Amino acid sequence: MLKWLWRPCQSLISVHQRRQLLTIAIETSCDDTSVAVLETSDKKNASPAAKLHFHDKITADNAQYRGVHPIVAIESHNTQLAPLVARAIEALPSSINTPSSISAHSDAGYRCGKKRPDFVSVTRGPGLLSCLSVGLNTAKGLAVAWQVPLVAVNHMQAHALTPRLVSALEACSQSREREPQFPFLTLLVSGGHTMLVHSKTLTSHAILASTTDIAVGDFIDKAARLILPHEVVQSSADIMYGRLLERFAFPDGADAHEYTAPDTRAEEMSRKLSKWGWALAAPLAETRSGSKSKAMEFSFSGAGSAVKRCCQGREEVMTLDERVNLAQEALRVAFEHLASRAIMALEKLNKLSIANAEKIHSLVVSGGVASNHFLRKVYVNVEPIVSKHSFANTKSEGSAHTSIFGASPTSSWSFHHPRYAQITPQ
Q1: CA angle, 22 as apex, 411 and 41 as ends, to 5°?
Q2: Which of 369, 82, 360 is nearest to 211 (CA)?
Q3: Which distant-in-sequence residues (6+ apart) come within 8 Å of 407 by Cβ?
Q4: How many CA atoms lie within 13 A of 359 on its CB side?
Q5: Whole-angstrom Cα distance, residue 163 to residue 404?
Q6: Whole-angstrom distance, CA of residue 91 vs CA of residue 97
Q7: With b meaning 16 or more CB within 10 Å and e meaning fewer, what string describes 366-385?
Q8: What is the pTM of this model?
Q9: In the 8-state DSSP scheme, what is residue 48?
Q10: What's the rounded Cα separation, in Å, for the pair 315 and 392?
Q11: Is residue 203 classed exposed, middle or buried when 0-12, 13-18 and 19+ CB atoms within 10 A define those classes?
Q12: For the segment 291-319, what is each residue's pLDDT rounded down to a tens digit?
């Protein structure tokens, strides 16, 4: 097993004195091959800042399989990772020839001195094991060659901390504190994971709720394959079916769609009968005795089965209007389910409020599904409900960015409020 590889003590002392760190990061957890170079600084009497020297990603072509094919993904990693790493090394800050510098070939063909990264970071999971191994083995090789530490990063933890990275990147151009401030809640929503996490510090995270079956992104992808007309799916150049479903459901954009959040729990749980005779129930709403309706967990397999029943055997008779309405309802029940668990967590934490310093200030929504504009609209509309518990005067901040510890493209946004919430985490 590869151990931590430390450089001589003198090098570590110089790093400590300058309070500056440089890393090259590798992400190969699924079908994206991504590499980044980030430098951080923590100057005295100033907010921590970060500078992104390089970032690029290449996605495997899985279009013909209508989903991620592991062998295609691995072949793409093996083909694309080395050139990306070579370009990342070229983008490292220049350095005079010192024992701690490394050599890199420039575009002009000559060798030039580059700063040696202080450590190599790489995604260790969750993800496809075979894909992860490509990035891990490359990162281990770089760490051994440069005699620097290897930092293996949890993919979900990187998602949770991504907004703080964005805040640090923005701090380079403006004076501001890094946001969100600890502690905060994070809703991680992607094709493989759905969980609500309580983040106390950089390294302390507690899972409050997670999916018991499939992830919300998986549900959306499967629903898209059933609902979207065949020609729409075939015309897609990629496998981002969730994005296709959103565009199909809201051709004028999610902001133009009329949506009103349920005022009561009973309204949220009730079925909304369509003019075609079908209705989608809220996840966990119809369990025996209703006991699961308030469980701190997520479930999307039931909603997926309901969508399948609406479409099965009716592909030829479903009108375009019915398909659009079904797409809107599928997204609505999924996103209201996500929002309900966040509200339930806030209610529970509110009852345990003790110390002001431990109160929740932000709810971060991160992961691939966070790029869905209708999800943001749902949260904006439930804000009056959420603000009863903690998030008064919230605003949504959205940005597509790089999660440097995983070096993976993602999306995240957060609700912030200016005054303390009456909430204390467990």
Answers
A1: 80
A2: 369
A3: 25, 26, 27, 34, 35, 36, 55, 57, 121, 123
A4: 19
A5: 11
A6: 17
A7: bbbbbbbebbbbbbbebbeb
A8: 0.79
A9: -
A10: 45
A11: exposed
A12: 778 889 999 999 999 999 999 989 889 99
